[in-house]
Records
---
Amino acid sequence: MVSPDPSLVVRMPGEVFVATDELLAHLPLLAELADDLEHDAHRLGLLSLDYPLGPLRKALDECERRTFDAADTVRRLRAGIITAELGYAQAERTAIALVDVASNWATAVFAPWLGPLALPPLVVGGAMVASDQDRRAAVTSWILDHPEAITSPEFSALVRRVVTGADDAILGRIVPPWVLMLLGDHGLGLLGVGTTAAVVTGVSARLGARVLNETPVSVERVGSTVGTAPPAGAAERLARVPEEKQVRIERYSAPGEEDRFIVYVAPTQSFSPVAGEEPWDLTSNIVGVGGLSSGSIRATEQAMAEAGIGPESPVVLVGYSQGGIVTDAITGSGRWNVKGLETYGDPGGTIALPDGVRGVAVRHSDDFVVATGGPQPPVDRVIVERRAFPEGSAIPTDKPVPAHQKDAYAETARRIDDAASPAIRGELAYLDAFARDYSGREAAEVTTFEYRAERVSGSSSGVGR
């Protein structure tokens, strides 16, 4: 059932217009109402011509005038709503930008004092990571017992400002603040979260450290089935994003047509900063955000090639969490013919994408994992946002970062499938048709491949196999 949802905030391509699904669903209804009123007014005008001058014709003419006025009022109401929403969106962007500029400037100016002050917490944090299992368990237990501390839009905004200002805090000790502002996120964009991530991983590789150091990867096909039905809707596509097997690829074949593919990419499997066997780890997270070729990105591309996807093959990518970073990077590489992109809880929003890539980006405003990718720039996709746990609602205590969990995004995906705004419905129809157009043809075939990747031990590389 399609129904407006006031909890879904929809950002149109380019972020020029921001409104709730409920409001966007009513805008076309207002336009339709205005057209109907105008049509009725014309009919009244024609009807009045059939009568001689007199009270009845006068009444019909008055009714015609008032109906035209009503149509004009509805159109002005619709235009006023759009103008108000545009003003709200612009004011919101301006306010956020001003706060970010002030925060980054202050960070750069006070870097000589902030550095020493930040050192003890960094040491303590490092000790926690490297320390024994009991300490890590205590930290995890506290986070689980107090989920409200990290599950709010305010905390997400704080995380975004911290990660955005990290490079300013470091460089502010040697570079004038005005230079940082010129080169940073709100200037030329040469510095930012991606730059910081790239520098950190580059330094680690040069020092030969095992922390955040990339390695080659190997990929193996571990499953293959025939006859899968195509996904219908956002919830079904998200449900097909794998976990342990990391990459799932569906090939849609039809006689006389080029094969189409849907690639589903898994979230992070390991949060260890030391690269082990698992490519979907913290190293790949940071390397991927830095715009470099991570193990998970290379593994996914190897799986795509093994499944028969060529540079011209039409493909739709679906990713959750780190899977979003991977799909963003693959799309942005320009090496693949990406026709659609659908991501959930994606911290890779700063990765540059080609113009015209359609799809949906789904984010929770209280999911701070998304904020670790820094400011999210305008894209050509429709962005759908929702607060997973509104103020006053019960927050689960059995899993860390509740707003980032797959079941939380699954609930949002179900709401997206029920949304009524034309923007969301248009993108869902486009993504559904990509697979359905082939699967419904005679002699069509759907083949599903599953892949598992591992890091190759004993070597390190920025590119790998």
Note: The two ends are 47 Å apart (CA to CA).
---
Amino acid sequence: MLALTAVAARSAEWGEDMHLNGKRVFTAVMAAFALNASNLSAQWWNPADPTPPKDRGTRFAAKVAYTHQTALDAGAIASAALWNDDFAKLDRMYEELLDVRATDGTSMIAPIAKIFEQAGSSPVFDKTIERWAQRSPASRLRPLAMAIRWEGDAWRARGMRYASSTPDEAMQIFRQRLGRATDALAAAEQEGRNSPIWYWTALSVGGATGRPAAQLDALFEEAVAKFPVYQPIYYVRANYLLPKWGGSWEAVDDFVNASVARTREREGDAFYAWLYVAIARAVDGDVFHETHATWPRMKKGFEDMLARHPDPFNKNLFAHFACSVHDRETTARLLTELGKNSRLGNWSDGVTTESCQRFALTGA
């Protein structure tokens, strides 16, 4: 869903090419779990779950820590379930994780939703969907998956070029596939409005089809009234305020500030950091030079984020940006706290764990 909604999820963190070969991917996932079992949380869908099988899914199971890594694991396992026709598992994961937030503050279903953006590029996807419909006719996820699939297919046909520089044939396919996505959203609407995924997809399709800003704002308001801390909804609305899609940095900053005000009681200023991290992925150059973002406010946002969601992923994210603006004191403190768990360098070029350690800890 364009640059912002693709933040992190289209990266290699949970393997966006899993759809290419389900059996191969399932084997790879199992091997990864065997090597990294200590990082996983107990849960019935987790093949490395240390809980005795008889206790899985019961009150006797170990308490689950839904970390950032657990969310990535869920996306990988859901992808493997899709391509191995384990639709019952996929549907159950979605239903049980629908209202669960990970310790980094993100939704556990967001990585599951992302697997369908690339799914349409697989020649076997339509047959897979047919089998899913036959075996799980009451699935609430499958209709959403179809809408996400067509939205992803539309952008694959067009690419990320401006309309003026896109061949007419590609634009025709783009519009046709967006039409399929619109139809899929309409078919899923009655039940779909109970899921943030429906709104996330509807906002993306609405923006891509050129719906008036007032309509997008009304849909956004409805979405966040129901799902006030589901970040992808904010990311996709912000995306269509970017200058490259006809907006402005003033409009982006106004939206960020309004989003912070909306969520402050629950999240402090965390949404300032979450949104500008996403926006940083969509700009060429330094986000603090290209946009109206400021480091003092971003720093406050990260501090509030960590106070509420002290996942190592968030601390690494904070350290990365602190290093990028040469805030030596903050970088040194965060790197010291992270120790061997320091993993900087995943959010922009020119910043690595080693370079930040030299800058902040050795003075080199």
Note: The radius of gyration is 21 Å.
